[in-house]
């Protein structure tokens, strides 16, 4: 039986679901991509967020919220990376409850090595294809992914206005 409601988007929907399932299967598993240090996708996201937002000196609860992670899941990943020597935690002088996380020099080196491997294995071919797609189409595809993530990840059925691209 063909599912008519998918219409002309059957193949795209199938690929989106296939991607989601593949990502979910490897999300928490650590992989080394033949590099010195193993990262899980979650740990990589935490590391990248910290690196991109170093100047903010956010506490762990703020970072977890920005990544749409539970504070306990964020804390577990930070603890694993502290044990590997990639992150360090400290308290601010004004509030002992606020734990700040920073990337160590070893963590920076491991991150650079790891993403170079990930780029070659996972992203290089995708980026070559995307180089041939006009930016406005990539923006629309990002909107599709935002809708999927928002509705599937949170169960919400309305979308924030800022992620909607106006189609003329």
From TrEMBL:
Stored InterPro entries: HTH_MarR-typ, WH-like_DNA-bd_sf, WH_DNA-bd_sf
GO terms, molecular function: DNA binding; DNA-binding transcription factor activity
Keywords: DNA-binding, Transcription, Transcription regulation
Residue ranges occupied by any HTH marR-type domain in the UniProt entry: 32-138
Pfam families: MarR_2 (PF12802)
PANTHER family: TRANSCRIPTIONAL REGULATOR, MARR, TRANSCRIPTIONAL REPRESSOR OF EMRAB OPERON
This protein's name: Winged helix-turn-helix transcriptional regulator
Organism: Candidatus Onthocola gallistercoris
């Amino acid at each position: 039986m063909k599912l008519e409601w998918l219409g002309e988007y059957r193949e795209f929907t199938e690929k989106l679901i296939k991607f989601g399932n593949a990502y979910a299967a490897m999300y928490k598993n650590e992989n080394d991509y033949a590099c010195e240090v193993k990262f899980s996708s979650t740990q990589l996201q935490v590391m990248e967020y910290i690196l991109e937002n170093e100047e903010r000196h956010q506490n762990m609860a703020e970072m977890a919220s920005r990544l749409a992670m539970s504070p306990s899941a964020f804390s577990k990943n930070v603890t694993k990376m502290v044990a590997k020597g990639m992150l360090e935690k400290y308290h601010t002088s004004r509030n002992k409850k606020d734990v700040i996380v920073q990337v160590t020099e070893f963590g920076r080196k491991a991150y650079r090595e790891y993403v170079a491997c990930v780029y070659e294995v996972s992203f290089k071919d995708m980026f070559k294809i995307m180089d041939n797609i006009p930016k406005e189409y990539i923006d629309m595809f990002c909107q599709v992914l935002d809708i999927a993530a928002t509705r599937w990840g949170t169960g919400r059925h309305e979308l924030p206005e800022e992620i909607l691209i106006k189609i003329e």
